[in-house]
Amino acid sequence: MFYNTLFVKHALYLHLYIQNETKMKKILVLLVSAFVCLTASAKVSGIEDAKKGDFNLGLQLGLPAVDKFENGDDPSAIPNLSLDASWVLTSGFINTKAFGQNGAIDLGLYYGFCHYWYDEKDWDETLNQNIILVRSGFHFQFVPKLDTYAGAFAGANVWFWNAENKSTGAETDNDDTDACFGLFTGAKYYFSDAVGVKAELGHDFNEDNYPLISAGITFRF
Residue 122 burial by CB count (10 A; 0-12/13-18/19+): exposed, middle or buried? Predict the structure, then answer.
């Protein structure tokens, strides 16, 4: 009787073990199948969000680049307002196993404006900064809907300065143009095929007069 009971218990344990092992194999097969399907899909269509022929418009607010006037005054400022437009010249020229056909290069224009002012006892000072650039970026997408990129820019900062004497009303005007060149990196996240949000970091190697951080919205056509 004892051996019969022991045999039944071992048989039951063996049956449960086989059932659990079968379930684990089924789950493993399903996971592998899902991974294969996702990988195959990525290889066929890729996950790139920057495609040849795309036209992009961006509107951003950024940190003001100037924290002091040349005379040492600390001005107030509105956020740097910028508008950029770019065209994707080529895409899909990098073939990867994990991310499919990927990679894109764009070329575009950038215009930024920032207004600074300083009010002291005897003088009112204002400074208008205009940033006019050509930019080009390399795009690579690691996950769907997120377009990550980095690139370089070159152009000019155009300055218009005005100071008014409060007592006499006399005004002094000056304008200047400085070269502007540097690097930028950023990311765009698309909520739909046409609309998304973006954020960028940038640095001007000449006089550091490019917004360090900016964020806004982007449109794709």
Answer: exposed
